[in-house]
Amino acid sequence: MKQLLSTLIAATLVAASSLATAADKEIAVIVKTTNSDFWQNVKKGSNDAASKAKGYTATFQGAASDTDLAGQVALVENAVNRKVAGIVLAPSDPDALIPAMKKAWEAKIPVVLIDSAASDAGKAYYQSFLATDNKAAGEMSAKTLIDKIGTTGKIAIMSFTAGSGSEIGRVGGFTDYIKKHSKLQIVGPFYSNSQMGTALNQTTDVLAANPDLKGIFGANEPTAIGMGRALAQTGKAGKVVAIGFDGNADLQAFVKDGTIEAIAVQSAYEMGNLGVKTVMELVEGKKVPAFRDTGVLMVNKQNIDSPAAKNVLY
């Protein structure tokens, strides 16, 4: 009986040790929301990275919406409480996540940011930031629009979540370039909170109120889809030059049929994949760069079937 009891105790200790090891190797990927193809492509990249590395698993969670800051904070705090090996985080707000990031730092859990930056107050609490250079991507989008419609007239900006790091850089870069290089009048920005239906209704209203509109910019995936649907439903497709952002199947179809002139496409897959790999490097004590540019490609009807475009479209 004593021998059996000793065997059971030993087995229990081994099992507990195995569970602890598994928990130590969990990488929590926490994004703004899971309700878009963009974030699902981040998930694919993170899962692929974890599946190819021995001893790691990636979990994937997002808040109910881009504006559910309390929900995202809770997800980070829960990850800290279960002692994950590392966190890949796309913060919905540059300031609201900092206290939760600090808790991870205090627990010696590495944090890698993707897509959107934290404010300077949070710089001590993350080790690397992986993203599109959103300012440059916004400037690229503005230049593409100017090249098509010229430097005079009226344009509209359909934005997503006011104050998020990616929105500030992207829409700020677009706006600054327009003001510096043209005399175009800007209507907006209008904020969809990354809700396609909201963007559709807002764009429909903007088109009705501004019959002389020459161009329009949809600054993220759900916003650009709503913009494209509004253009198609109001008969303005091809008449108002539209530039979108991101590259799911809906947006690709809009480019192919001429509803949208071009889309600036980020590598969502690379953000997830490289984010998880960067956490692994940190766990293993390796040095990582403070910033990694995951790139952007302007995709139009002429290059949409090219190898370069296929690498980033999803």
Automatic annotation (TrEMBL):
Chief site of localization: other
Keywords from the named record: Signal
Signal sequence region: 1-22
Pfam families: Peripla_BP_4 (PF13407)
Annotated ranges, domain Periplasmic binding protein: 27-287
Highest taxon of the lineage: Bacteria
Similarity comment text for this entry: Belongs to the bacterial solute-binding protein 2 family.
Stated name of the protein: Ribose transport system substrate-binding protein
Lineage, highest ranks first: Bacteria, Pseudomonadati, Pseudomonadota, Betaproteobacteria, Burkholderiales
